[in-house]
Specification:
By secondary structure, this protein is mainly α. Helix content is 89%, strand content 0%.
Length: 46
Protein backbone atom coordinates (compact mmCIF):
# COMPACT_ATOMS: atom_id res chain seq x y z
CA UNK A 1 0.00 0.00 0.00
CA UNK A 2 1.41 3.30 -1.09
CA UNK A 3 0.48 6.73 0.22
CA UNK A 4 0.25 9.30 -2.52
CA UNK A 5 0.16 13.08 -2.48
CA UNK A 6 -3.53 12.85 -3.34
CA UNK A 7 -4.19 10.86 -0.15
CA UNK A 8 -2.27 13.37 1.95
CA UNK A 9 -4.19 16.28 0.41
CA UNK A 10 -7.51 14.54 1.01
CA UNK A 11 -6.59 13.99 4.66
CA UNK A 12 -5.60 17.64 5.09
CA UNK A 13 -8.90 18.75 3.59
CA UNK A 14 -10.80 16.41 5.92
CA UNK A 15 -8.96 17.73 8.99
CA UNK A 16 -9.37 21.45 8.18
CA UNK A 17 -12.80 21.83 9.87
CA UNK A 18 -11.49 20.09 12.99
CA UNK A 19 -8.63 22.61 13.23
CA UNK A 20 -11.13 25.47 13.07
CA UNK A 21 -13.27 23.92 15.78
CA UNK A 22 -10.22 23.39 18.01
CA UNK A 23 -9.33 27.06 17.61
CA UNK A 24 -12.82 28.04 18.80
CA UNK A 25 -12.58 25.64 21.74
CA UNK A 26 -9.23 27.13 22.77
CA UNK A 27 -10.71 30.64 22.77
CA UNK A 28 -13.72 29.51 24.78
CA UNK A 29 -11.46 27.81 27.32
CA UNK A 30 -9.41 30.99 27.64
CA UNK A 31 -12.52 33.08 28.26
CA UNK A 32 -13.82 30.63 30.88
CA UNK A 33 -10.47 30.52 32.69
CA UNK A 34 -10.25 34.32 32.67
CA UNK A 35 -13.73 34.49 34.19
CA UNK A 36 -12.84 32.01 36.91
CA UNK A 37 -9.63 33.84 37.75
CA UNK A 38 -11.48 37.16 37.92
CA UNK A 39 -14.08 35.68 40.30
CA UNK A 40 -11.35 34.24 42.54
CA UNK A 41 -9.47 37.53 42.61
CA UNK A 42 -12.69 39.41 43.36
CA UNK A 43 -13.50 37.03 46.23
CA UNK A 44 -10.14 37.47 47.93
CA UNK A 45 -9.05 41.00 47.13
CA UNK A 46 -12.16 43.15 46.80
Amino acid sequence: MEITDKDILATKIDLAPIKVELLVVKWMLGVVLAGIVSLILKAFFV
